[in-house]
Model the fold of this input.
Amino acid sequence: MRLTAITMAVALSAGMAVADTVAPTQVTYGEYGAIETSLSGQVGDAERGRELMIARGKGNCIACHAVEALSDAPFHGEVGPPLDAVGSYRSPAELRGIVANAKMTFPETVMPAFYKTTGFIRPGDGYTGKAAEGELDPILTAQEIEDVVAFLMTLQGS
Amino acid sequence: MKLKALTAMAALLVAPAAFAGGADDDTLVINGEIEMTTKADAPEHMEGTGIDQVISGWHFRADETQQIQMDDFENQGMIFVDQAINTWNTAEGSAGQSCADCHNDPESMAGVTATYPKWNEDAGEVRTVQMQVNDCRVNRMGAEPWPYDAAPAINMEALIASQSRGMPVDVAIDGPAAETWEQGKDIYYTRYGQLELACASCHEENYGNYIRADHLSQGQINGFPTYRLKNAKLNGAHSRFKGCVRDTRAETFATGSPEFVALELYVKSRGNGLSVEGPSVRN
Done:
């Protein structure tokens, strides 16, 4: 089952062109911050999303959120709410909007925007402390946002 | 079931003591004699921040780390204080003078750290302890200034801080210092970098919470310089600020920069009423 999903995602990404990707500056957010369609034009891979949730320098979502399903990865934070059942009460469109730019859903939230490239104060070159050179990349790519959303949808509580 | 799983997870993943615990209730006494005020009513200027009690970073550290700070023989920061005593007594520069030639014993520095950063009328600027020390080195001793937060500078700052241990932090934020203080306050609330986080996002809104493996404190600097077990040396407030700003994926300011001097004054003023603890011990 899992394998099938991965294989499908690989097959899809091999086949499809980047042209369907919505650039960070072109994203349309709904009134409450949701994004209706896939940012990459493709389905997400929950297994890859799982890795991104844990990886420092990528999602590092567990820095702020506790997630029981990720308890094999050490140290979960308490800055944001636990996400254990988030897939049961949030739609993919809402989750996509929250991960891409949570401030569209929760104004002033401390949660960083993972699919945003402009409007920062003193943006750095990653975690070097030096000034960013040239255009910024979003912290997660369009496909990575989809992967994280796919993983979040697996969180249905117990 | 769910509760049990959560508890098990907490035990496994987080330092066992203080899950969602906030500050602990321990008491800090150094060498069995210097009693520290580690919790105090928030100074008036913090009204509206949601913080009514200011708390030393000591309360957010693990028991083992806390213990080390309670005894000068265990506190390895004191080794660097001893080194600075040698420096204090050593003549340097074209004037052939040492700190001791003008200031006698280091004990004469009691009270300095409690009131710095401080407005300097002649210079027309707010000065940190390190800036003042460099002023003496350059203008009185004819010696080279020390680079900001470099070992000789931070060790001397720790020697000076240790003379004020137990005294309440009491920096002036009004009068000529007000403008610099406001600048520091602006910086404190600015959401820097690609993560768009301000000092306040972590140390005002979220102290007491864990962020990954780190137990967030109020980011107070009454304990600086700080001996960190992580790098086994004394660390300055500006170096800590730099690390925190870097962690927001931002371009940092330099140690010793006007921005960090202003931020030091502002952050220090948030600890008015807490005891000077430097050199403290942190992980």
